[in-house]
């Protein structure tokens, strides 16, 4: 447990980066985890195929909030194609906590990436395996 | 505080092999029995004995093993009937779980009896298993759903019964005890008023049958559904009790072996109850082990179990009430509720609460507990839930409270 709640996670959960919504969003997508009721919405402004601004909103546990905070930092300034290629392992490494034996919490950690990719690909849902 | 407990909890705990372990370096405090209870040695041994010694299909073979299996299977049905005060073992239908039992009523009774414009009355505190089958029935039949609301303390707003019950109401489905709020509902009173307008009453007993004396005659309901795995029995076995006259008039649920009399190429005639509702090979060993679980509970006594949980709940209400930033949902008096306590902790998401508690060996559940409409009503996305059973101790509630303080400090 103490592995899960490292200072970085607590800090990001308390004061998440890029939290909020964008009224002029080019793409906006909300993902929902029916297991726990958590929601993450990602708003993107895309110009010339580049993500020039991003916000996330919603409610969730420290891990899902910290993950969304870290992910939105990562993708700001990326091209749409680069963001589509962003791998879940990169995000998990950034989160830096061991989740391989904890599939329920892994889902929390991947919720924001799921919202991002479903939004970018314009599909309703992406299976965790396909992230 | 446990002077009143009529049985030796420490001795009883030794009957549960799973409780003898450490989790994350701490002795396991299992506070999630509302989701599924742990199993005593007797039940595990009984299941193993069936598979090792007399595994055979029931109601088929004429050989010794099959006869022994059939005898044990039907004896388990008799134990269930006695346990809930049923008039006859024939009123006891084995299902997979509470969910399947409720679906059986919705499909079979509901399919045969509901017309467009009929009304189904539910409550806002129901588990999804006592909502979704009725929604599906409403969509098929053209019946309309309505819900009894809650008061500020998480009790049913019973004054709404009179305005919502009328001769169009064909079915009322209600939980005996809420899996989130812990509220014990006055089922007998609801059943009497529902019967006065001619409605059939279905009770979800998943959270009551394991924890208190339940007698269908006193409840006055028409159907009662519950699960074996929440009452020290195995998974995969549940019960639907139904009034004989209703069951006898109902069409089959699933089609297949066991549920027929004569099968011809174009049509079949169906078996008598309860076989009519038990298509295919049942969970034989699991049903027999459920019978063993009932013997185990009976040996302690359901009244003593109820008293033990009442003491734990009173103590938990006191301890959790003293945790700063904790919001408890449901009645704040132990006499109005069972041992399921759901709460939120300021600034800490319920999943984080549960993870932090897991770190100190305390197992609780976090999420919406299959009650999304209730959580929407409470205006929270999720809660953390601690729930108690026969083997829990006051010191485990102390550990819960200490873990909650730790969680709060971590996020402060």
TrEMBL record, chain A:
GO terms for biological process: iron-sulfur cluster assembly. Residues 5-120 form the NIF system FeS cluster assembly NifU N-terminal domain. It holds the Pfam family NifU_N. GO terms for molecular function: iron ion binding; iron-sulfur cluster binding. It comes from the Bacteria. NCBIfam families: SUF_scaf_2. This is SUF system NifU family Fe-S cluster assembly protein. It comes from Candidatus Viridilinea mediisalina. The lineage of its organism: Bacteria, Bacillati, Chloroflexota, Chloroflexia, Chloroflexales.
Automatic annotation (TrEMBL), chain B:
It holds the Pfam family Aminotran_5. GO terms for molecular function: cysteine desulfurase activity; pyridoxal phosphate binding. InterPro entries: Aminotrans_V_dom, Aminotrans_V_PyrdxlP_BS, Cys_dSase_SufS, PyrdxlP-dep_Trfase, PyrdxlP-dep_Trfase_major, PyrdxlP-dep_Trfase_small. Residues 30-400 form the Aminotransferase class V domain. Its EC number is 2.8.1.7. The keyword Transferase applies. Keywords: Pyridoxal phosphate, Transferase. The keyword Repressor does not apply. Belongs to the class-V pyridoxal-phosphate-dependent aminotransferase family. Csd subfamily. Catalyzes the removal of elemental sulfur and selenium atoms from L-cysteine, L-cystine, L-selenocysteine, and L-selenocystine to produce L-alanine. This is Cysteine desulfurase. The lineage of its organism: Bacteria, Bacillati, Chloroflexota, Chloroflexia, Chloroflexales.
